TrEMBL record:
Protein name: NAD-dependent epimerase/dehydratase domain-containing protein
Coiled coil: none
Annotated source species: Clonostachys byssicola
Keyword Oxidoreductase: yes
KW Oxidoreductase (keyword) present: yes
Keywords assigned: Oxidoreductase
Residue ranges occupied by any NAD-dependent epimerase/dehydratase domain in the UniProt entry: 10-260
Organism taxonomic ancestry: Eukaryota, Fungi, Dikarya, Ascomycota, Pezizomycotina
InterPro entries with a match to the protein in the record: Epimerase_deHydtase, NAD(P)-bd_dom_sf, NAD(P)_dehydrat-like
The organism's place on the tree of life at top rank: Eukaryota
PROSITE patterns referenced in this protein's UniProt entry, alphabetically: GLUTAREDOXIN_2
GO molecular function: oxidoreductase activity, acting on the CH-OH group of donors, NAD or NADP as acceptor
Gene3D superfamilies, per the entry: NAD(P)-binding Rossmann-like Domain
Similarity annotation: Belongs to the NAD(P)-dependent epimerase/dehydratase family. Dihydroflavonol-4-reductase subfamily.
Length: 368
């Protein structure tokens, strides 16, 4: 298969991001060439270094503002695959209507540009579980057939009073709706698929040089391995998937020209206690708080407890690809190993006084 794909070029937008970086790596490992977009060339140095073993197979192109129509026209030249991950959205201080309009505009810009390039064979959208899951529905198992109609309805009826989190969800739903509407209306020649991951952890391609620069959902594990409570946002609905599995399904979709499919990517139910139990099993003398082992989740397989009435079903990904998810234990341990050197540099007093709760208070989900 390497001979068939070695000359194919894939565009990955926002390539310095957590998911995008691992996605670029996965394509390169599969024999593709990758062109990654960044807003500023200086931000790509660490990513370029991490992927330097692939030489000229990986290249960077600067796209200052992906929101501008035709901004990706030059970057898409010669590409057979387009992976839209970049989504420059501010959750706090953002108004609902412009946020949703911008999210839709980005998707339409990408697809319109792809339609102008005959080389494009596949387009994949990085969506989110937030476009699927809604609250207040009672017992329900969410699959790729579901949509977050709650966020849609709130946006229609009361956009001026939406919280930052609900604005985020409404924008994500609208963006994916636009993606599928484009397919239905324009019937492009390229295949189209969307990926809807739950909260994502797993080791990053590039580890920041300071714990204060950690971004995204990996902060949940980092907090717990530091002996602290994890950020509250991850406690109420702790469904997880490894970033490497997200990258894998993206490559699968491009490689197989998967068309008209959504993939809910979720492998485990991992509340704070589950993280603590995994870390203490491999590091019994670590600073991780013991808690009540086994509390709040079901085994084997890190499943939701019986009293959890909203379930995420990520089995379609396994059925279609023929490959199971990376185990929850492996994902937690690999993430912790990646960040442990940064925690070691903080010194012991930060754990004793628990003052670093303030440090970790910024650890909000960047993509869910």
């Amino acid at each position: 298969m390497a001979q068939e794909t070695e000359k194919k070029l894939v565009l990955v937008t926002g390539v310095t991001g957590y998911i995008a970086g691992r996605t670029a790596e996965a394509f390169l490992q599969a024999g593709y060439r990758v062109r990654g977009t960044v807003r500023d060339l200086s931000s790509a140095r660490q990513t370029q270094k991490a992927l330097s073993q692939f030489g000229s197979q990986f290249e960077i192109t600067v796209v200052p503002d992906i929101c501008v129509r035709w901004a990706l026209n030059e970057a898409m030249e010669g590409c057979t695959g387009v992976v839209q991950i970049a989504a420059p959205m501010k959750v706090s201080g953002q108004k609902a209507i412009p946020a949703v309009e911008e999210a839709v505009s980005i998707v339409n810009n990408v697809l319109e540009t792809a339609s102008e390039h005959q080389s494009v064979e596949s387009a994949v959208l990085m969506s989110t579980v937030s476009a699927i899951r809604r609250s207040g529905t009672g017992p329900h198992t969410f699959t790729e057939e579901d949509w977050n109609t709650e966020a849609e309805e709130m946006f229609k009826t009361d956009p001026d009073n939406m919280s930052g989190g609900m604005i985020y969800k409404a924008a994500k739903v609208a963006a994916e709706r636009a993606f599928w509407k484009y397919r239905e209306t324009n019937k492009p020649s390229f295949a189209m698929a969307a990926i809807n991951p739950s909260f994502v952890h797993g080791p990053p391609l590039v580890v920041p040089n300071s714990v204060f620069k950690i971004k995204g959902t990996t902060g949940f594990i980092v907090s717990i391995q530091a002996g602290l409570d994890g950020p509250d946002v991850f406690k109420t609905y702790p469904w997880w998937v490894d970033v490497r599995d997200v990258a894998r399904i993206i490559v699968f979709c491009v490689k197989n020209h998967t068309d008209g499919e959504r993939f809910l990517a979720v492998s485990a139910y991992g509340p704070q206690q589950a993280v603590a139990d995994v870390l203490r099993s491999v590091r019994p003398n670590s600073r991780v708080e013991r808690g009540v082992p086994g509390e709040g989740y079901a085994m084997p397989g890190y499943r939701a407890p019986e009293n959890e009435d909203q379930i995420l079903d990520g089995s379609k990904l396994v059925r279609v690809t023929g490959q199971d998810y990376i185990s929850y234990e492996q994902s937690v341990v690999d993430t912790a190993n990646a960040y442990e050197p940064l925690l070691a540099n903080l010194g012991p007093s930060i754990y004793i006084k628990k003052m670093s709760q303030k440090i970790f208070s910024y650890l909000m989900p960047s993509s869910k």
